[in-house]
């Protein structure tokens, strides 16, 4: 299970997609894996969703029946690391919520 869980504590927004209920997916993954989900977002791959969790990013189908752990690369764009870009955006959101004053303490 240690390989399934990576370090990340971030907040995010929920994806809106026809036929997929982000809140239900969040609850399903939290119940099945016992990890807190902060983010459910779409990926460039149809039917595959990024989950931001306290233990790291995961990818899942719309029902939460299958979970992937790993790095998503965009081979059409010079092997752009989409997982790393997503993590960077989530960190920026988390830092913005902390505020500059609290970062200096």
Low-confidence stretches: 1-17
Sheet with most strands: strand arrangement: 1-2-3-4
- Quickly give the structural class: alpha+beta
Helix content: 25-40%
Q: H/E order of the elements?
A: HEEEEEEHH
What number is the mean pLDDT?
A: 79
Compute the number of helices.
3
Radius of gyration: 14 Å
**Could you give the count of β-strands?**
6
- Euclidean distance between termini CA atoms: 35 Å
The global form is globular
Strand content: 15-25%
Major sheet: 4 strands, antiparallel
Describe this structure in words.
The protein is α+β, with helices and mostly antiparallel strands. The protein has three helices and six strands, in the order αββββββαα. The strands form two sheets. The chain has a four-stranded antiparallel beta sheet, sandwiched between helices. It has a two-stranded antiparallel sheet with strand order 5-6. Strand 5 and strand 6 form a beta hairpin. The chain starts with 21 loop residues before the first helix and ends with a helix. 18% of the residues are buried.
């Amino acid at each position: 299970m240690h390989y399934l869980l990576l370090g990340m504590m971030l907040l995010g927004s929920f994806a809106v997609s026809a036929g997929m209920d982000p809140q239900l997916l969040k609850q399903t993954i939290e119940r099945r894996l016992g990890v807190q989900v902060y983010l459910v977002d779409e990926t460039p791959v149809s039917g595959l969703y990024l989950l931001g969790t306290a233990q790291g990013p995961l990818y899942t189908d719309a029902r939460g029946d299958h979970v992937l752990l790993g790095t998503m690369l965009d081979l059409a764009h010079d092997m752009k690391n989409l997982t790393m870009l997503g993590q960077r955006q989530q960190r920026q959101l988390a830092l913005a919520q902390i505020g500059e004053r609290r970062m200096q303490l």
